[in-house]
Predict the structure.
Amino acid sequence: MKKKKKILLFCDPGIDDSLAIMYALLHPHLEVVGIVSSYGNVAQEQATNNVAYLLHLAGREDVPVIGGAKGPLSGEFTVFYPEIHGPEGLGPISPPDIIVGELLNFDRIFEIIERYEGELTIVEVGRQTALAIAYILGEEHMGKVKDFFIMGGAFLVPGNVTPVAEANFHGDPIAANLILNKAKNVTVVPLNVTSDAIVTKEMVDYITAYEYNPFTPLIKPIFDYYADAYSELIPGLNGAPLHDVVTLAALTQPQLVNYIHRSVTVQILERTRGQSVGDFRPGWEAEPSEVLHRIGMVLDFEMFFRDFLNVMTRSLHDQ
Ligand code: BDR
Ligand code: CA
């Protein structure tokens, strides 16, 4: 049997984050060994409650939940996105107040890294603040992470929160830069890839036609809310992009995304805040390998389509 990839997921659920959690728990080749929940699409307390609710539905209260950041490193006020993700992050659904069995101390992140030394992938699909804090508090542990998959940035396409910036990098550009500067083996899955991971209402009808798993009843109402929000944002768009799901899908399928290697930095100030920068000029002079990041450029949509339908129609018992 194929060995499962162990992942520690940093997220801010949020609709596409919630679908990413479901995808990860259903995926036969992924083992979720912890979830860090932070502010971003909603406040940190709400994000944590949403994580707890999804784990409870799956009967996976054994997955450690660690409370992440409540705001960016700059100390600025955070803007949430209820119009896209719903007032509580799950579209029209108001999750019950699930008490997280034990909301674990931040140090648990380092225990997880030590326990799975050399085989752990950190997947970051929210603002990067908590991950940056992990570097600040425990850099000696961070080198033991195998690799990082980060949803953020936008290359050669417009942003989604400003004309140049994508939401995760814009939310905490200081944190994003810190990670890009310090982390090794980083794959960046940016908006130019994730915006093509469009799921339609027809695809959702297919994956909810039968109650395949405990998440099925939630998927249609939360997705419809998200797709309706997108149809107002981008008139004519049939469906909505699952940015965070495709980041996990890229981890499980090496051929899903086509990559190039460049050194990425993030702009911090004023009008260009959150803009991801890499040298894309034709005469690009090779940069030293230690500063390079693997940047997603193009998505194989057909492969995403098949994989998404396949994973979301699995039972939790098919693992
Ligand atoms: C990213 O921003 C968030 O709102 C989404 O959950 C995703 O992680 C897309 O820009
Ligand atoms: Ca997210």
